[in-house]
Design goal:
Blueprint lengths: L2 H28 L8 H18 L7 H14 L7 H30 L10 H27 L5 H7 L1 H16 L7 H74 L3 H18 L8 H16 L3 E5 L10 H19 L6 E8 L3 E9 L23 H12 L3 E7 L2 E9 L4
Helix pairs in contact: 1-2, 1-3, 1-4, 1-5, 2-3, 4-5, 4-7, 4-8, 7-8, 8-9, 8-10, 10-11, 11-12
């Protein structure tokens, strides 16, 4: 192996370090998607292909070719992971900022301290090791921050665009520095400029995080207020129902007594059956340890009964279900509304809501009868949903929430049973 080849292979340690950092950030920020079961493995295989191509075609480092290669890798890798398109673009921007700031900071500090040209850093074993190690360390730290950010991201898309404008400008400046770094020696000004940009971006991101936390706290306060209101309404409904049933109980007993005194056993049985159905519809008691969910499901049960639909529950303890109040109402209400509407047109009219929990996720399934099997395209309903009885626009809102919260979901329709299943991570969304 020639000396030139040795330096070329050593230089690619930086590429391996930065691509490993990209994968860590993508996994933390985006999570596992629905199409690729092992996204990290696919990303690693793509990195191996890009590494081989870089070595085979001698693309080099800190030039236009290497920048283009990294940009392509950023854009393709995020496709293996989950998240919305907005989150994927955010992950690309975060990785770009992380990579460029780290590499340029290390390069200019090293060249200034060691008095070597920037283009020669890649030929310095210590310089290569420092850049690779710095990328892995910064990547790990960024991944932890990205995980926290992904769990508590509350800013609107437009707010995110505005917040990321300055970091985006810094990315462009650092790309220019990287491409031109081989033609300019490191000076005190260039070092201070590079380090200053890094510090400025970190301070900017800190302010963005503080703003995000304020928005999160505001939404949490709104959620708590909504929860307390729902609790009060649920208590009032329970109290009113109990008073009505207590009032009617004496009348029912009197009616049954009269029928029995007359010897009308058939009439008494029919009356008792009708009363049992009415009482069951009005006294459905749910205890998932989630007051908002209990209240919501009780209402949906009554709505289903009014439409002649049998709604069955098989639920676990959902006290720690990580959805916020608004998202919970959107997901559960739309799923049950769609299911009840579709089941009302089928025979028998049945809807089943089931929830189970393991260490990693909640599995929530809504299953209902349909008149006929629905056509699914790639596991999804067609975009034009006018022909689908009971399913359609409601699922659009559900998908938006689940995609934003990085929850996996599947749709199926077979033997006149429509099923919607979603996996909700046990961590707080």
């Amino acid at each position: 192996m020639t000396k030139e080849m040795l330096w070329l292979l050593m230089g690619h340690l930086v590429c391996i370090g930065q691509w490993a950092a990209f994968i860590m950030v993508d996994h933390a920020f985006l999570g596992r998607g629905r199409r690729f079961r092992f996204p990290c493995l696919w990303a690693a295989l793509l990195a191996a292909v890009f590494l081989a191509a870089s070595i085979r075609h001698d693309i080099g480092f800190f030039n236009i070719g290497s920048v283009i290669l990294n940009v392509i890798y950023l854009l393709v890798t995020v496709l293996f992971f989950g998240g919305s398109w907005n989150q994927k673009l955010s992950a690309c921007l975060v990785n770009g900022i992380m990579c460029l700031l780290t590499e340029n900071t290390v390069i200019y500090l090293y060249t200034y301290l060691e008095a070597v040209p920037p283009a020669q850093v890649i030929r310095q074993p210590l310089g290569v090791l420092l850049m690779a190690a710095a990328m892995l360390i910064v990547g790990g730290i960024t991944a932890q921050m990205a995980k926290h950010w992904g769990q508590k991201q509350a800013l609107e898309p437009l707010q995110l665009v505005v917040a990321m404008f300055f970091p985006g400008v810094v990315v462009v400046l650092n790309m220019l520095l990287m491409v031109s770094g081989g033609r300019f020696d490191a000076t005190q000004f260039s070092v201070l400029f590079t380090v200053g940009l890094t510090v400025a971006v970190l301070v900017h991101l800190l302010f963005v995080q503080m703003l995000n936390e304020q928005v999160v706290q505001k939404k949490d306060s709104q959620y708590r207020a909504t929860l307390e209101q729902e609790r009060a309404e649920a208590l009032m409904e329970s109290y009113t129902t109990q008073r009505r049933l207590t009032h009617e109980f004496t009348n029912h007993i009197a009616a049954l007594d009269a029928l029995l005194r007359q010897g009308d056993l058939t009439g008494a049985q029919e009356y008792l059956s009708s009363v049992s159905k009415v009482v069951a519809a009005g006294t459905t008691i749910l205890d998932t340890h989630n007051p908002l969910l209990d209240s919501l499901l009780s209402r949906k049960y009554e709505e289903a009964a009014q439409q002649g639909v049998e709604l069955y529950f098989d639920l676990c303890d959902l006290k720690d279900l990580p959805f916020c109040g608004t998202d919970l109402v959107i997901v559960i209400s739309n799923l049950l509304d769609n299911a009840i509407r579709a089941a009302a047109q089928a025979k028998p009219p049945e809807v089943y809501l089931r929830a189970r929990r393991n260490e990693e996720e909640y599995l929530i399934s809504v299953r209902n009868r349909v008149q006929k099997d629905l056509e699914l395209v790639d596991g999804e309903l067609p975009r034009s949903t006018k022909a689908e009885p009971g399913h359609g626009m409601g699922l659009v809102n559900v998908r938006e929430v689940l995609d934003r919260c990085r929850c996996e979901y599947t749709l199926s329709c077979r033997d006149r049973w429509f099923r919607f299943t979603c996996a909700v991570p046990t961590r707080k969304l």
